[in-house]
Amino acid sequence: MKAKVTGRKMFFAGKWVARSRVIKVYDPQDNSLIDTVPAATVEDILKCIDEAKDGAKIAARLPVHRRMSILQKAADYIESNQKTYANTIAREGSKTIREATKEVGRCIQTLRISAEEARRIHGETIAFDQMPGSENRFGYYQRVPIGIIGAITPFNDPLNLVAHKVGPAIAAGNAIIVKPATVTPLSALLLAEAFAEAGLPEKVLSVITGYGNEIGDALVTHHAVRMISFTGGLNAGEEIVRKAGLKKVSMELGSNSPVIVLEDANLEDAVKATIAGAFWAAGQNCLGVQRVFIQEKIMEPFQKAFVQLTRQYHIGNKLSPKTDMGPLISELEAIRVETMVNEAVEKGAVLLTGGKRDGAYYLPTVITNVPEDCTIAKEEIFGPVVLLYSVKDLDMAINTANSVNYGLQAGIFTNDVHKAHEAISRLEVGGIMINDSSDYRIDAMPFGGVKKSGLGREGISFAIQEMTEVKVVCFKL
């Protein structure tokens, strides 16, 4: 599919602006040019932050009913243009058209939930008379906007993960500057278009396109930016924390999520759920199933069914509704995954299916008997690769699952409620799904991890807590 390259503008403090230097946006499926976007400079970021200072004051003064109305109208606009949004997600990223359509639906939900949560930003009264001598005092605390938020977003959910930062920020009365992934900026610009059409005042929202290594530091380190909300890789996250200074930081840094399948589980359900969780968006998913621990008694039938179903996956054109999985975001990423798998096989791992690359495509891959010293056994793959492990019992599965530096979400399949609760209490993760894969999430729930999987929580009402400050008020009567 070829598209006319017109040159998109970036959303600079509520105005659409162009720049002479541009970034080319390619479709990873065939490397065809989709469009171009401006390559912002450090000067652009600094000017944008100055505009956002006024934007923060404007946003804080917006009454709650206006915030709610704007968020609902933005959702309405996206709902009226779903095909455009889905096609954009599918073309600039890795998702199939079916996956992209689901992301558009989730984005609409994210904005509608944000509108509802705007009315629920509450404080509480404080019993000052609990302290002797304060009998004549009365007061409360309230939550107030933090000010300017800098948001840095990844390529794998180029619309909804942006909405997860913009929706709560606007609901809470903040200004926000978004720096979307360089390879997938078009979906974020479409989100800005929805807010412009919805009547969001100028200067409240900016979507600045550019190279992270050129403009990222200016956004992260600026003293006027009071919070950085980042979703991406561990190395980049650690670098941001070192540079950010005295401000709030929210981080979602990925994982190598475990799923445990015990011998009393429904085998068919476990196989279907773990496969769907492993290969969604070509495995480029922070919640994606990477390590599956199967109780030894059912290892053979589970493995056989898992491999059989994996081989039935249809790989091909992202825009075809028949396609189950598209390419990775780039050929370089596919080569990186290929290298990790090859290292494991060279060290003794057994390749059960897949393991082949064609450009940016990498076949859904299943391996077992993976040595502990392999990179793929310890780090996030972020590709369509699953590791199967045979374990003696739940204790062994939990200990092995916890042996890595990540802890975002986990899943366990069992019909024994006592074993489920043991996993709940012992697994070192931010969320655990019972009789489902690690890849289950709704947009209203708290979302985030422990250890090196991140800091803080997303999920609209929880993000609003992160994006507001507590102010105490006390009257001396």
TrEMBL record:
UniProt domain Aldehyde dehydrogenase: residue ranges: 16-473
Top-level taxon of the source organism: Bacteria
Keywords: Oxidoreductase
InterPro entries the UniProt entry points to: Ald_DH/histidinol_DH, Ald_DH_C, Ald_DH_N, Aldehyde_DH_dom, ALDH-related_metabolic_enz
Gene3D superfamilies with a match to the protein in the record: Aldehyde Dehydrogenase, Chain A, domain 1 (3.40.605.10), Aldehyde Dehydrogenase, Chain A, domain 2 (3.40.309.10)
Family to which this protein belongs: Belongs to the aldehyde dehydrogenase family.
Name by which UniProt lists this protein: Aldehyde dehydrogenase family protein
